[in-house]
Amino acid sequence: MRIFISGSLAYDRIMDFPGHFADHILPEKIHVLNVCFNINGLVEKFGGTAGNIAYTLALLEERPYIVATAGEDFDRYEQWLSKNQLPMDWIKKIPGVLTAGAYITTDLDDNQITAFNPGAMAYESELPPFKEMETDLMIFIGPGNKTDMMSLADLARSAGKAFFFDPGQSLNIWQGNELREAVHGALCFISNDYELSLFLQMTGWSLKMLYQHVQMVVTTRGPEGCILDQQGEKTLIPAVPVHEVLDPTGAGDAFRAGLLKGWSMKMPWEVCCQMGAVAAAYAVEQYGTQEHFMRWGSFCRRYEVQFGPLPC
C-alpha cells in the first residue's frame, strides 16, 4: 500500500531558560512588554507533523511519501530523510525562503514561549494525481498549508481514496464552513481531546453530526490513552507504560504512525489504535520528535507484552 503524508516539515529550535518567566514579566506592564531571556543554548531537531509521522513509519518498515514544502535550508533535513530511506518525490522546494521553523523557549516550570515561522509552508505543495494511481493507497491530511489540506481532501474524495483528516494545531487558521467541507467523507477524524472540542465548536456540530461525515473518530488523551469512537460506540485504548517520560512532544505524531501502519496491514481499528499507543511510548522515552528508534521485531514484542500477539 502506498501511503501519502501531508503536513509540515520544520526545524524545531529548542532553548532552555534557566529561570522562571514569571519573575521577569511585570503584570502591570504587560501592555508595554519588552523583555529578553538569556538562554543556556540552542538545540536544533527535525520536526513538523509530516516529517515526524513519516520517520516513525520508516521505523515500522513503511516508506511513505511526504507531501509538503521546504525552503532553501532544507539540505540537512533532506539528508536525514534520505538516511531513513524516505522518498522525497512530493516535497516541493521553494527558493528564497526558509523551511518552517519553531523557536521554543522553556523555563524551569516547563512553561513555554513559542514563535513559529511558517516559511515555505506558506506556499502550496505539488499534489499527487491520486485519480491516476491504480494502486491501493491511503492519504493522511495533517496540519500544514490550509489550501493543500482542502485540495487533498477534494482529490481524495474525487478519486475514491481513503483519507484521514487531522486539523491539529492549524485550527486557528480555519473557518467553520471550511472545516465542514474538508472533513466530509474522511475515513477517520483524528485529534486530541482539546482539538476535538474546538473543532465541534467551530463547525457548530455535535459528535452525532460528525458521525454523518466520517466513519471513525480517534481522540488522543495523553497518558490516559485514546478513545476509539465508532459511530458512538466508544472504546478506551490505554497508554503503554514507559520506562521514563523524557519528552511527550512527539507522542501524538508517533501514535498516528502506528495507527496508519495498522490500517495499512488491514488490522481491526482497535488493534490500529493499540499499535499507535506502542509507537507513542517509544517517542516519549526520547528527547525530540525524531530521536526514538525501534525495529519491527522489537515493536511486535512490546505490543505483545501489553496487548497480546500481533500477526507480524
Give structural notes:
Residues 40-291 form the Carbohydrate kinase PfkB domain. Keywords: Kinase, Transferase. This is Carbohydrate kinase. InterPro entries: Carboh/pur_kinase_PfkB_CS, PfkB_dom, Ribokinase-like. GO terms for molecular function: kinase activity. The chain has 312 residues and is an alpha/beta fold. It has one domain (2-9, 50-100, 120-307): Ribokinase (UDP-N-acetylmuramoyl-L-alanine:D-glutamate ligase, 3-Layer(aba) Sandwich). Helix content is 32%, strand content 22%. The chain contains nine helices and 13 strands. The protein has helices spanning 49-59, 75-83, 146-159, 176-183, 193-203, 207-211, 251-264, 269-284, 296-307; strands spanning 2-6, 10-16, 42-47, 65-70, 91-93, 100-106, 112-117, 137-141, 162-165, 188-192, 216-220, 226-230, 233-237. A nine-stranded mixed β-sheet has the order 5-4-1-8-9-10-11-12-13, with helices on both faces. A four-stranded mixed β-sheet has the order 3-2-6-7. A hairpin with a 5-residue loop joins strand 11 (216-220) and strand 12 (226-230). Helix 1 crosses helix 7 (251-264), helix 3 packs parallel to helix 4 and helix 7 (251-264) runs antiparallel to helix 8 (269-284). The longest helix has 16 residues, at 269-284. The protein is globular. The model has no long low-confidence stretch (mean pLDDT 95).
